[in-house]
Amino acid sequence: MSIELSKVWFAGISMEECRCRSIDSGMRSLYSDFISLSEISGGTFSTVMKLETETNSYAVKIFKPDNFEEDIEFEINVNKKMDELKVTPKMHKTIHFILEGKNISYYGIVMDLYDETCFSLLCDYSFEYKLLKSNGNNKCERYKELYKDVVDKMIEAYLKSTESGEICMDVKPSNFVVNSIMRESDEYIEYENMKLEDMKSIVNKFNITIDGDKRKRETWECALKEYNRKKNMEVSESIENIKHDVKIIDFTADWVFSNDIDSEQLELVKNCLKNNGFYGSKTYLLFIKTFGMLLMFITILERTKIDDDFKYILIECFKPYLKILKGDDKYTSKFIKSITYYFVFKDKDIRPLFQTYSQLLTKNKNLNVIKKLDMFYTEIQNIINYKLE
User: What is the pLDDT of residues 30-84, one digit of tens each?
Assistant: First the structure.
């Protein structure tokens, strides 16, 4: 097997080209301490792999070969912008795999590996809350705070991402990843290289229980080790000592609107909205961001199976962002309010209003960009159908 490595340029991005028999063998050539490559998840446009090396673990997003190169180019460039804003897992390299003898190319992004998706963590927090609440355990309230913190961090990452010049509307919780970082106790005692007399002094100062032969050093070490363990447990029981680091991971071209004021795409969106009933010409970007927020709100609400206590947390988190109330666009405001009420309070059937409004905004089918709004409405319709099942 011959493997050739060289630096090439693709879409203005420094990319490593790798000629190999398989992606696995390509990774072995790129990482001398390679251990394994395994699939984490798969989607329509890409597959996410876990790359294990002797020194680190990474996530590798592999774009499927049936995608158009311009779409892959677009997503890599958007990821680069988001990386600069620190709202996506840190990018380490981009790779072009050329499979020998198969005439197939794959493109991949190597980035930091995060613990899990926000969807998974929100479901866990919701489950733990219900379990503790059913047993009368007042520690259940802690999970409400944790849940709210994750949602707040998702919103924060989304709003920050719009500074890139792109607005992504595919912002369901499975497209966010999170690390839950536990802060260690500030009272940790580094006893390993401490003199025995100093150890005894600290034990006496903090009234630490001694169990064993006081003539032996290990007895005092065990006492201080147990003290550290208990202090870390006390820290872990407190909400303020858990930090959620949330990032966005999916910027598929079909779901992203450019908010570059000079872009042809933005002008098409703006003109279409104006021609189809949305007259707030200064708020068309707010329109797009608000609908992204609406989809995030609905998918969290419906897919994480939360109870009424959590619904009001979500309302509190999203309420400032689900408003357009700008002059004459009252119909959009009515639509957002009605669809929110439908999902939160099981209000009257929203489908007639939904269909009327979607037709109003998407009737001009000759504009390719409006297909993105069609995708948005289709996703909302799928959630409505899911709710009705």
Answer: 898 999 999 988 777 888 999 999 888 999 999 887 667 778 888 888 899 999 9
Domains of the chain: 5-112 (3.30.200.20), 116-181+243-388 (no CATH), 196-242 (no CATH)
Q: What is the pLDDT of residues 252-271, one digit of tens each?
A: 776 777 655 445 555 655 66
Cα 377 to Cα 286: distance, rounded to the nearest angstrom: 17
Is 294 in contact with 339 (CB distance < 8 Å)?
yes
Q: How many CB atoms lie within 10 A of CB 306?
A: 21
First vs last Cα of the chain: how many Å apart? 53
C-alpha separations of 79 from 112, 161, 170 in Å: 13, 10, 14
**Side-chain half-sphere of 249: how many Cα atoms within 13 Å?**
32
* β-strand partners of 179: 245
pLDDT attached to residue 116: 92
Task: Report CA dihedral (163, 166, 169, 172) to the nearest 10 degrees.
Answer: -60
Instruction: Report which of 177, 152, 150, 318 is spatially closest to residue 244, judged by C-alpha positions.
Output: 150
